[in-house]
Amino acid sequence: MTGIAVALIGYGYAGKTFHAPLIAATPGLELTLVASGDAAKVGAGLPAVEVVGDPMRAIADARTELVVIATPNASHATLVRAALRAGKHVVVDKPFTLHLSEARELAALAAGSERLLSVFHNRRWDSDYLGVKQAIEQGTIGEVVHFESHFDRFRPEVRARWREQDLPGSGIWYDLGPHLVDQALQLFGVPERVIASLATQRERGQASDWAHVLLEYGERRVILHAGMLVAGGATRFTVHGVRGSLVKRNADRQEAQLLAGMRPGAPGWGEDDDDLQFYDGSAPARPLPVPAGDQRRYYAGIRDALLGVAANPVTPAQAVAVMAVLEAASESAQRGCAVSPPLTEAERGALR
């Protein structure tokens, strides 16, 4: 054993595309076991890694120190609970759980068992977000009054996958919404009110495939949007402040690079030549280069937290806050009214 032993539960899109390659590319972590019902698929991609069919065997394995859960959303709470009770540290893919009450329960269980629990909010380490965050923190556009973030796709055909079926935890808001919400909370904290609209726009669609959510922070407005019928023309970020505006047209490239088979850390990894555009109202836009993205930093943070030399990169308190906004938006869309995120003062204070 050359590092912290990791068991990955689930080898679908998230497990295969993101978790397995990022873990493998992080020094100090060693992927030793995968729990999957498709041993041939795992063997083709990870020929040296042991495969088991039962997730509980992966959790119970004596070698395993860190359990990474990349299974359908409805199974997250059960598997996280089992892993924590078995004395393992846990990373779970977003969304944390299906319900805020479950998220709170698991956060308390992790604290009581003194085990690390973290949610894979990997988009904090995307080039597009890092560029916008850097410009805001440097005061380039002054106080932000309007922030708009899009995660759009063009997938007109409904695919036979659980995320697009009428199942608990499916639909675009619980798929892409966690990324949008986590980034907004990192920049601005918990909003006062949430107003949301969800829709199913594609023919034969079973789950929501369009989401438009407004977060209110006093006079500041934050718009989070995701759709499956956007063929082009939309921007990733549009931000207006009292001194100017920022526009980021294209999204971070790491997902596309992973799908193309690039190994994290290879030459060109995470590099983004689509500059941020800065407008100040008096001249043509000025390009602002963005930092390279590197989602390996999430797993490097997990490693360092387990070694006791750094803090958890995504804490349970932060993940609970994301769940509260996700839940508030779902309630808003159902009731047709504004909803305040149902967080206690202590939970809000944990983010300050």
Task: Write a structural description.
The chain has 352 residues and is of the alpha/beta class. The protein folds into 2 domains: 4-120, NAD(P)-binding Rossmann-like Domain (Rossmann fold); 126-293 and 327-335, Dihydrodipicolinate Reductase, domain 2 (2-Layer Sandwich), CATH 3.30.360.10. 34% of the residues lie in helices and 22% in strands. The protein has helices spanning 13-24, 39-45, 55-60, 76-85, 100-113, 127-137, 172-175, 177-188, 254-259, 296-306, 316-335, 345-349; strands at residues 4-9, 29-35, 50-52, 66-69, 89-93, 117-120, 144-152, 193-199, 210-217, 220-227, 237-241, 244-248, 276-279, 286-288. The strands form 2 sheets. Strands 8-9-10-7-11-12-13-14 form an 8-stranded mixed β-sheet. Strands 3-2-1-4-5-6 form a 6-stranded parallel β-sheet, sandwiched between helices. Strand 4, helix 4 (76-85) and strand 5 (89-93) form a beta-alpha-beta unit. Helix 4 (76-85) runs parallel beside helix 5 (100-113), helix 5 (100-113) packs antiparallel against helix 11 (316-335) and helix 8 (177-188) packs across helix 11. The longest helix has 20 residues, at 316-335. The chain is globular and about 65 Å long. It starts with a strand and ends with a helix. The mean pLDDT is 96.
In short:
The protein has 352 residues and is α/β, with parallel strands linked by helices. It is 34% helix and 22% strand. The strands form 2 sheets. Strands 8-9-10-7-11-12-13-14 form an 8-stranded mixed sheet. A 6-stranded parallel sheet has the order 3-2-1-4-5-6, sandwiched between helices.
